[in-house]
Amino acid sequence: MIKSILKASIIILLCSVSFLAKAQIGFDYAQYDVGFAAGINQASSTDVQTLKTTPSINLNFTYNQSPFVNYIFNVEVGRLKGGSPATSTQRQFENHFSAYTFRVQVQAGELIDYSRSAIANAFKNLYLSSGLGYINNNVVYRTEDALLLEQGRVLPYERKTNEIFIPLRLGYEFKLFNSYNQPAVKIDLGYQYNFIMGDNLDAYVAGAHNDAYSQVTLGFKFAIGGVTSYRKQIHY
Fold this sequence. Notes:
Elements: H1 2-24, E1 28-45, E2 53-66, E3 69-83, E4 92-107, H2 118-123, E5 126-142, H3 146-150, E6 160-177, E7 183-196, E8 212-229
Antiparallel strand pairs: 1-2, 1-8, 2-3, 3-4, 4-5, 5-6, 6-7, 7-8
Protein name: Outer membrane protein beta-barrel domain-containing protein
Keywords: Signal
């Protein structure tokens, strides 16, 4: 009986040591992150003739299915602006928007073996991401089309509208590791193009194409818990 208990204790001890050793060499990661980001935007496909750069900020929450497969919920506020009195139409607008986005993000490290190549290791944090978004448009300024006014015509518009959009994002996530080789802080640099399922972003319903806007963002994410293990070593 004593021998059986001793044998079982040794097995449990060995399993515990094995688990701790695994945690020390970088297989563990946090399943939850919170973060924030700042960006610059352009209304890159609208019904005005010139583009302007405007700011935005966002807060985000991430569920990490793995260190390289991430589900991200994002809340953002910002401005979009375009047009000029020096153009032929003299159209100008300014939109103070809020947006809500859910994205699935897949990093190269989920798909490649990065353990034997310095180049592959460098590219493991490169990602593609897409999902679904919802934008609240609040157009605070908008001029009439000068060419139409000469003909006695105007373009009707709504100041406040809501639209669905599809975000497509390419980026890179710099991972900073703690003393246990777990990703603790992430610096996210990305370019995102948002395809609007409508034509109200600039308050000009004109032309043959829906609106769109692009963004470059820099953000920081912080691991907040739910530590679990991954099948591959994360840190090299």
